[in-house]
Design goal:
The protein is of the alpha/beta class. It has 15 helices and 12 strands.
């Protein structure tokens, strides 16, 4: 018997046992995570429950996590922060919501992770939102900036029905399209337009490294608009102008390892973006990272509104640095022009002061009853 055939047979024979091992390992993790609530319930002091923390290695989402934690530390010093993944919250096996009911006090705050999580395209974050809101409709809730999109009318209606129970939830919409949807879906909820929190890092860093070439930061998921071969053809055309590299904001490092030294991973990524003369991206955070790195960015469209509407908002503040391309031919023409142009001036900080420095005040007013639910 050939060695390759033997290995395949062994793997096939062991596969059920390995799946069982993974299932047991996951159950042990869920059990341990849920049992933390028993210890938390014993501590009678105001605290924060941060739900839906990042469980993957996308540095854009990790950037949100990093900035949300910093915002909490700056605005609620002394509040213990208890983090739980969405998969733990929605797991019914060990009674997470029952234990949360004993742990959640009247002064406690629930914060939901930001992102493309109010949607029915996949994942369990929207389910997490619904089960928590339905069980705790009177809790103080801060929904960090969301992109909204639903294909199913039934799922959209269900989400709207349950979210509207949350009379003390501040829902932050990440773009104008999501804001319009939120106003229509959640008339009983306080809804406001707020930028992605990673924008608070724009203007914080200065980079002195030499710049050369173009970096294409392109996604590889259902949101992508252009096929791989089309992007490859663009890179070949651009390579005739300058050296052109490919990347993505998802890196091949376990997410738990990234979280242990998250600032270093993010700053290395910003420094990498700062070594190029130009970024071309269809990633929302690829665009934000470019601004953090003070590198002009050309934004490619995706299948939904998330990236382009975000780009329009950022362009309204940083007009010289953000450029929208309706086609790959236009992206190439813009690249030619930008490579021959003058370097852009370092961006000033804007979103932190204009939005996040006043977020706590808005939320506290809503939670205390001195701010009526409205649509800002």
């Amino acid at each position: 018997m050939k060695w390759g055939v033997f290995v395949k047979r062994v793997r096939r024979a062991l596969s059920p046992y390995y799946r069982k091992y993974l299932s047991i390992k996951e159950d042990m993790h869920l059990y341990a995570d849920t049992m933390r609530l028993i210890r938390i319930a014993a501590v009678k002091r105001p605290k924060i429950f941060y739900f839906g923390i990042v469980e993957h290695s996308n540095l854009g989402d990790m950037g949100q996590y990093y900035c949300i934690r910093r915002w909490i530390e700056d605005n609620f010093p002394g509040f213990p922060v208890h983090e739980f993944a969405a998969t733990t919250v929605v797991a019914e096996k060990f009674g997470f919501l029952d234990k949360l009911e004993r742990a959640l006090g009247p002064e406690d705050i629930i914060i939901f992770q930001s992102g493309y999580t109010t949607q029915d395209l996949g994942g369990v974050h929207d389910l997490m939102h619904r089960v928590v809101i339905e069980r705790f409709p009177n809790a103080k809730i801060l929904m960090m900036p969301q992109t909204i999109y639903f294909k199913s009318k039934e799922r959209k209606a269900l989400t709207a029905k349950i979210y509207n129970l949350a009379k003390r939830m501040l829902f932050l919409a990440r773009d104008k399209v999501s804001l319009k949807m939120a106003r229509e879906m959640f008339p009983d909820v306080c809804v406001m337009l707020f930028p992605d929190i990673v924008t608070t890092l724009i203007g914080k860093y200065r980079f002195a490294s030499p710049r050369s070439g173009i970096l294409l930061c392109c996604r590889d998921d259902v949101e992508k608009h252009y096929r791989d071969e089309e992007l490859k053809a663009l890179s070949i055309r651009l390579s005739a102008l300058v050296k052109t590299d490919f990347t993505d904001t998802t890196i091949n490092v376990p997410h738990r390892k990234i979280k242990r030294d998250i600032s270093s991973y993010l700053e290395r990524e910003f420094e990498r973006f700062a070594r190029y003369r130009l970024i071309i991206t269809d990633r929302f955070h690829g665009m934000v990272f470019a601004l953090i790195a003070n590198t002009p960015v050309i934004v490619l469209k995706t299948r939904d509104h998330k990236v382009t509407t975000g780009a329009e908002w950022l362009k309204s503040i940083y007009n010289d640095s953000v450029h929208l391309a309706e086609s790959l031919d236009e992206a190439y023409s813009l690249a030619e022009r930008l490579l021959n142009g003058e370097p852009v001036q370092p961006p000033a900080s804007y979103f932190k002061e204009a939005y996040y420095d006043r977020l706590k005040e808005i939320a506290v007013k809503l939670w205390s009853g001195s701010l009526e639910p409205h649509h800002g």
